[in-house]
């Protein structure tokens, strides 16, 4: 009988996952199950799966599962009679999950089984950090989590997945999926901010500002220059850095909506990103830094239901406008729509144009040019905000940085082959 190397690989994966999870449990001085027990449980899951598969008997796997559960219950009962040790339910649940993972490696998808096993080990390892993070959450943080859960897990699944209205472009589920995407990116940035703290450093503040909202970051840092002295150049750096990260955010959005078209669109967008990065590097390294306060202003809750609904409406309107102009009017009008839309929300126009490219109603070359133009329009709008709300020195630096970036972006749109 020939050797089945796939089964040997499956056993090896189970052995490694069992060692990994068992190592973490033993490091916590857990008396109920350690590295050997978890490894044996994972291997038992695989063997149970082999027997179920080869003997075509569906009862073998659940019988072994019940036996494992009985052993864990018995061990837990005996351990609780020992006053020196106390146990929660984490080890027991982890052991049962380890058995199920072992069986799923045989009966299901090995990649999913390996991912779940690795995630289990990480989840057990970061217990203290997770508890500390949860203790630091305030009412605003919980509101962000619950609102995002409602947006993504309750509203999204019940919306109809069909198109309505003119031009056959308004799909409620697709529109709300884009809302979920944008809110999700902002929520991730917000909780990274909560994790690293306020004094994360200038570069981190620029990155987080771009993830959460580059426009809000611009407003916050511009106002700081009115209240504090000698932070004008630092504020200009963070504002420009957040705008650079906003371009990466745009690239991520395109990659999610039309991943097959991303290789054709990414280079000119990256070129503009490189321009902004070079400007930031110049400001960071070649300008003498003054004494400054690099505390990032507390961002607002990025997952507000009202804001999500407004973004959905805006996205739908832009989707209609872009489809109408693309079908009935000339290219010149489309560029005007991109400029006006970019002033208000570059995410909405980016997603709208990506949908048209996905549907085959817009060429890729025209699409990335309109997206970059909308981004430059948004950059111009943020520059106006900084000049209006900030100090004179901030206005000078932002005018120079954004002026160069906008000129380079226009040259990219004009000269790129």
How far from one another are the termini? Answer: 60 Å
Average pLDDT score: 84
Which structural class should the secondary elements be placed in? mainly alpha
Low-confidence stretches: 83-87
Helix/strand order, N-terminal first: HHHHHHHHHHHHHHHHH
Count of alpha and pi helical runs: 17
Give a count of the beta strands, DSSP E runs of length 2 or more: 0
Q: How many independent structural domains?
A: 2
Give the overall shape, derived from the CA principal axes: globular
Q: Indicate the radius of gyration in whole angstroms.
A: 27 Å
Beta-strand content: under 5%
Helix percentage: over 70%
By oligomeric state, this entry counts as single chain
What is the makeup of the main sheet? none
Give an overview of the whole structure.
Helix content is 79%, strand content 0%. It has helices spanning 5-27, 35-55, 60-80, 90-107, 110-125, 127-135, 139-158, 172-196, 202-212, 214-227, 232-257, 262-285, 305-328, 331-344, 346-359, 364-389, 392-415. The longest helix has 26 residues, at 232-257. It has two domains: 5-133, no CATH class; 137-415, no CATH class. The chain is globular, with a radius of gyration of 27 Å. It is mostly helical and 417 residues long. Mean pLDDT is 84; it is low at 83-87. Helix 13 packs antiparallel against helix 14 (331-344) and helix 14 (331-344) packs across helix 15 (346-359).
């Amino acid at each position: 009988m020939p050797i089945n190397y796939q089964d040997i690989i499956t056993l090896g994966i189970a052995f490694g996952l069992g060692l990994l999870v068992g190592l973490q449990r033993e490091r916590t001085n857990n008396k109920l199950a350690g590295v050997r027990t978890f490894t044996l449980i994972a291997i038992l899951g695989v063997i149970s799966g082999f027997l179920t598969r080869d003997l075509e008997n569906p009862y073998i796997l659940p019988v072994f599962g019940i036996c494992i559960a009985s052993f864990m219950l018995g061990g837990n009962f005996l351990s609780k009679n020992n006053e020196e040790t106390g146990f929660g339910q984490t080890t027991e649940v982890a052991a049962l999950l380890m058995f199920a993972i072992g069986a799923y490696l045989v009966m299901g998808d090995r990649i999913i089984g390996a991912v779940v096993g690795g995630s289990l080990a990480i989840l057990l390892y970061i217990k203290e950090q997770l508890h500390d993070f949860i203790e630091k959450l305030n009412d605003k943080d919980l509101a962000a989590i619950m609102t995002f859960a409602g947006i993504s897990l309750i509203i999204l699944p019940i919306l109809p997945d069909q198109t309505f209205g003119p031009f056959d472009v308004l799909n409620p589920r697709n529109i709300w999926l884009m809302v979920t995407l944008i809110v999700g990116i902002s929520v991730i940035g917000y909780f990274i901010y909560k994790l690293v703290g306020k004094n994360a450093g200038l570069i981190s503040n620029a990155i987080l500002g771009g993830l959460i909202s580059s426009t809000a970051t611009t407003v916050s840092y511009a106002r700081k220059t009115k209240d504090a002295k000698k932070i004008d150049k630092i504020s200009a750096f963070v504002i420009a850095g957040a705008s650079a990260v906003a371009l990466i955010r745009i690239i991520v959005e395109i990659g999610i909506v039309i991943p097959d078209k991303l290789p054709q669109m990414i280079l000119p967008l990256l070129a503009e990103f490189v321009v902004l990065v070079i400007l930031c590097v110049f400001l960071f390294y070649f300008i003498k830094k003054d004494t400054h306060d690099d505390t990032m202003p507390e961002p607002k809750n990025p997952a507000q239901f009202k804001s999500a609904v407004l973004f959905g409406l805006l996205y739908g309107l832009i989707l209609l406008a872009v489809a109408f102009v693309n079908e009935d009017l000339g290219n010149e009008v489309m560029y005007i729509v991109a400029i006006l839309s970019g002033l208000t929300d570059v995410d909405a126009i980016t997603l709208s144009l990506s949908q048209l490219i996905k549907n085959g109603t817009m060429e890729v070359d025209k699409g990335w040019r309109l997206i970059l133009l909308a981004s430059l329009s948004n950059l111009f709008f943020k520059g106006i905000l900084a000049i209006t709300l900030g100090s004179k020195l901030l206005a000078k630096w932002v005018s120079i940085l954004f002026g160069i970036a906008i000129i380079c972006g226009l040259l990219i749109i004009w000269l790129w082959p």
